[in-house]
Amino acid sequence: MKITVARCLPSHQAVSNIKNNMRFKSITIMIIKSIIIMNTADKHFKFINSKTGYVIFYSSLSTTLTPDEQKAELDKIKAQVAIKNGIYQETVYWEEIKDE
To answer: How many beta carbons lie within 10 A of that of residue 45, not counting itself?
Structure first.
């Protein structure tokens, strides 16, 4: 990394600018890493009202869940979505969103 310090700045100000610049870069790298990890570590689902065919909710689950844990979590979300929308649970179904 190349760091350029202008001669007109007092030395304490130059050091402060360098520290702030490095802090910004490390925060940016952490944010980018978390976005990459978040996107690849999730399965995405849509919940659909079978009477209308409209998607009424989107959710993501971690890929670290076992199939049984995943199904239990999806059923719990399905119940919450049905209650929130004032419809029967049997009216709501979910589909995994696949990248095409």
So the answer is: 20
C-alpha span between 15 and 7 (Å, rounded): 12
Angle subtended at Cα 32 by Cα 26 and Cα 36, rounded to the nearest 5 degrees = 145
Give me the torsion for CA of 80, 85, 90, 95, rounded to 10°.
-70
For the chain, which residues make up each domain, given as ranges?
9-40, 42-97
Contact call for residues 63 and 47 (beta carbons, < 8 A): no
Residue 13's contacts (CB-CB under 8 Å, 6 or more residues apart) are none
Beta strands in 1-100 (DSSP E): 42-49, 55-62, 92-97
Residues 1-15: pLDDT tens digits?
444 444 444 555 555
Phi, psi at residue 44, to the nearest 5°? -110, 140
